[in-house]
Amino acid sequence: MMAETIGISRKGEHNMEWNQIYGPDSRPDMDQITGYIQTPLWKELCVYLEDVYGVSPRIEYSRCSGKPGWNVKYKKSGKALCTLYPEEGFFTCMISIGRKEAPEAELLLTACTSYVKDLYAAANPFNGSRWLMIEVKDVQTLSDVQTLIGTRCKTAKKG
User: Which of 8, 23, 85, 98 could form a disulfide with 3 if both were Cys (CB 3.0 to 4.6 A apart)?
Assistant: First the structure.
């Protein structure tokens, strides 16, 4: 009964979109987000960001028409490393590659998956940045995301 209340069918599949399950007045916690996404890649990226960069997740609500609803932001020294958007069975990672990061990112892209290379090539620069919306569904794409995040922040956590 409780599962149906939050939009999960008896089979464990969600019967509602993320932003319908958790509206603007119903902030999910990290456990609820993890339960919705249901992939170990989510936890792997979150632990990586927290361990390598010493950052904590910030759960925020967005009314953006492209990806409305609750998302998870990671920032270091006021600079966004990435924004994570929950999806059923995977998540989308938004990374902005700015003018300063572009040369390094373009070198690193040579070792990335064709999926991420194609996303970068198709992303039209906006105010000097390319906004990549990367669907993380496999380990290789997760590795690409971690590599690109590295262009956003040079300093890992101290000590």
Answer: 8
